[in-house]
Amino acid sequence: MTRHAIVKAAALALAIVSGGVAWWTWGFPHADTADAHVADAASSSMGSPPVPSGIPPAVSAKASIVPPLPDGRGDASAAPASAAMDPAAIQAEARLHRDPRTPPIDPPQPGPEPATPWELADPALYQAREQRQNEQVRTQFLQAAEARLPALRAAVAEMRRQGASAESLAMAEEKIRRLEGVHDQLARGEVLK
What we know:
Blueprint: H1 3-27, H2 34-46, H3 57-65, H4 87-97, H5 117-121, H6 123-162, H7 166-187
């Protein structure tokens, strides 16, 4: 390959890369104008009138993107997106305001509260904290076992009534006996081994 051909190939590659960068940056609005672009895209794709000046762009975009329900019932924000809407506007709306069909995220279960600096500094206080936490776990287990044991006994009685095999009945009864044993041991205040 000649030097002239290499220079041409390098110039072509540079032109392609710079064109791609220009296209990439041109296609994505900056953060400070994102809401205005969403409102513009929504109103142009839906054929709705321009956004009134007193309404913030995010609110007006949401109002123009989410169509009302055809029969007038229910919450219009939970309505599915119309097929006539611009996919880019739908995606921008979901990015800014979440998809209304998405289920809520459950809050995390509370864990044990962290030790205070005084508990960390004093071994006796830290040991008392550990004992409190162990007592809470023991109490929770006892309550759960007391709530579950009657249901398990009823299930075994139902299995017996339906004519379950002796092996499956024995296995279920063994699970109940073991759960009762752990429950009784914890109720007496014994440490599990």
